[in-house]
Amino acid sequence: MNYRFGYVLSGGGARGMAHLGAYKALLESGIRPDIISGTSAGAIAGAFIANKMDPDEIFEIFNKTKVYKFLHLAFSKKGITDMLVFQQILDKYLKIRNFEELEIPLVVCATDLNNARPVYFRSGDIIRAVIASSSVPVIFNPVEIDGVSYTDGGVMNNLPVEPIENDCNRIIGVNINPVIPQDNFKSVTDIAVRCFHLAVHTEIMKKAPKFDIYIEPQQLARYNMAEISKSREIFDIGYEAALAAVENWKERVNEL
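and the corresponding structure tokens:
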């Protein structure tokens, strides 16, 4: 089946608010996703978008329920925690709980810890798949589904275009993890996180040519993955970056 527009959303913690801003800009530009593929924060945003909810409405839910405050608290703990609070939020606000009932198809990427591979959920329980996709290693317990342990999808694929790339006429990618020069490493942890982001970004750059519209807001590099106090700023950055990317795409199409 061919879809007009495919929408691919990366992980990135609290920077996920930028997905909502980008989505708002796309809607205002007359672009509606016909299928969505997401990892981690992108899977969270994708689940709400696939439920056909307005971007401002989703933003208010995230702010009201403190979805990313929960993430911030989890990062501040020394031990591993679970996703019970997050599951309760999804249970309350997601009206459609099964992939098969969605009008806008959704693909959720999670990492299969047992078999060392990305897995793309397209059927069954949306909430369980999203929780698995969002379970940041070390911070959150792995999620077991049918006897298999899953963790954050970004470990194996942080911009999952592969499940939909052959089914869409146009593909839009939103990467909320830009990499810019950095020299203020304060700890071994900072260096480890930087190395992880470099590895992930290298793989994403190989995929960038696959996207007709590629959105990577460079300003997001100033915000860490748990910076919930800047949610409106992050939303606006996603919005402006998407408007610019769509305008650039329209100019290129007109030149052909």
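(Above: one complete record from the training split.) Residues 213 and 249 are 6 Å apart (CA to CA).
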